[in-house]
Design a protein that fits this description.
The chain is built from 1 helix and 12 strands. With 151 residues, it is mainly beta. 8% of the residues lie in helices and 49% in strands. It is globular and about 35 Å long. A 6-stranded antiparallel sheet has the order 1-10-5-12-3-2.
């Protein structure tokens, strides 16, 4: 996992060649007025801009991906993303066509904070519980989730 401000994103462009650089350039150029929807960045990367409400930790679910890395970028609002290694966690549901599997609650995890202008990169095999309400108080957010094919 990488957790940083979008203004520092240039440090991470070498992670996956051109796709990361293209996605970070796109994310750095969006704001609260950006239309909701899918934006194709390349044949192996796209960004979904969406709005929603964060939820208390007890209502969230851990998920992981096998093929795509996520770059989750907060446009407006705040959230916490709980993160841990997916290895050894029991699968509670999956959708292989959608490259997502849901996992049982781990015994321990780290947290990434996303305030406005912050992002988190979550690689395949990293379980994460997004859209967790900071301090347990739900709030409406607008965020972008980029998907970059890694495997």
């Amino acid at each position: 996992m990488i957790n940083d401000r979008i203004s520092n994103s240039g440090k991470y462009n070498a992670v996956n060649d051109a796709d990361f650089a293209k996605v970070f350039t796109f994310l750095a150029g969006i704001d609260g007025s950006t239309a909701l929807g899918r934006y194709d960045i390349s044949d192996t990367a796209y960004v979904n801009v969406a709005e929603g409400d964060t939820v208390p930790r007890s209502e969230g679910r851990f998920e992981a991906h096998d093929i795509y890395a996520d770059i989750q970028y907060m446009i407006c609002g705040r959230e916490v993303i709980d993160v841990c290694d997916a290895e050894g966690l029991c699968v509670t549901g999956d959708n292989p066509a959608g490259d997502i599997k849901f996992l049982a609650e781990p015994a321990d995890y780290a947290q990434a904070y996303l305030g406005e202008g912050w992002f988190a990169v979550l690689f395949p095999g990293e379980a994460h519980r997004p859209m967790t309400a900071p301090d347990g108080i739900p709030m409406h957010v607008k965020k972008a989730v980029a998907k970059i094919k890694i495997n």
